[in-house]
Amino acid sequence: MTRFVLKRIAVMPLLLLGVVTIAFVISRLLPANPIAAIVGQRNLGNEAIVAAAERKWGLDQPLIVQYFNYIGNLFRGDLGTSFVTKSPVLSDLADRLPATLELALMALVIGAVGGVILGVVSASRKDKFADHLSRLFALVGSSLPIFWTGLLFLFVFYAQLGIAPSPGRLSSRVVPPPHVTGFYTVDALVAGNPALFWDAFSHLLLPAFIMGWGLMGTISRLVRASMLDELGADYVRTVRAKGVSEGQLMRGHVLRNSLTPVVTVLGFAFGALLMGAVLVETIFSWNGIGSYAVEATRALDYPAINGVSLLGGAVFLLANLATDVTYAVVDPRVRLV
């Protein structure tokens, strides 16, 4: 396994170079001028200011020169400076990443736990009302567009019923906790402030549920199918013949064996949740990587676009590696070569 992991890690820089190259080329092909984000709309007519800005940011150089300059800086750990924030992209990503991580992890927990519960209910009550209801709930979560679900839930639970908090990570007059991890829920607990924790947690629930609902549907269908297959296995009849209760059979044998396929889903799902939070973060005013990517794209912020693309590629590669390793640990029959 160690050899497999080292081989995969050795290939990662080449794959990330390909990701960055594609992002670099595509961003330059977009029919817009990033100089407006640098100098502002009022100064676009001033040729001296525009020329000075192009020289400062290297935009007056040939495209191939810009590319190799960027790659050279990348190997030195410099992702460039954002046209919009005027801060290093690496700092911007470090500031925004904890918000998206907190949201994605919560969505992963909701999707995984909820999906397993729904799958168990469906399998243990096959073709009964509970089975049909849980399958319908999973189907709706997997089918509805996330932007539509987010707007609908925000309108119903916040605007109409008033039982959900306002968009954002905290209430408007609440001061964020001292920075430790960047996770407001964790930092509030570290600061010993339960009121702040509940405020952050309540703001986290609705967007995390919307992100995790689709994953819940996928996992529930996977668990249901796996459990039904396991229930038809010979060892199940043997266990029942020994007088083991149905609950013990489900928990100790069938469910445990049925969870192995779920492992393959979770790694990819986490990567998708982490880098696919654009719509949810936009709807819920969540100041994370997704909203940063939207701002960068609107302003044609080349360094920020490339930085987000690099981060996304790294997340998916690491998630893929973690999934393969975990699957091999859970199922000894799988050999990594």
From TrEMBL:
It comes from the Bacteria. One of its GO terms (cellular component) is plasma membrane. The keyword Metal-binding does not apply. Pfam families: BPD_transp_1, BPD_transp_1_N. It is a multi-pass membrane protein. Keywords: Cell membrane, Membrane, Transmembrane, Transmembrane helix, Transport. Its main location: membrane. One of its GO terms (biological process) is transmembrane transport. The chain crosses the membrane at residues 103-124, 136-159, 200-219, 259-284, 304-330. Residues 97-327 form the ABC transmembrane type-1 domain. It is found in: Cell membrane. CDD domains: TM_PBP2 (cd06261). PANTHER family: DIPEPTIDE TRANSPORT SYSTEM PERMEASE PROTEIN DPPB-RELATED. Belongs to the binding-protein-dependent transport system permease family. This is Peptide/nickel transport system permease protein.
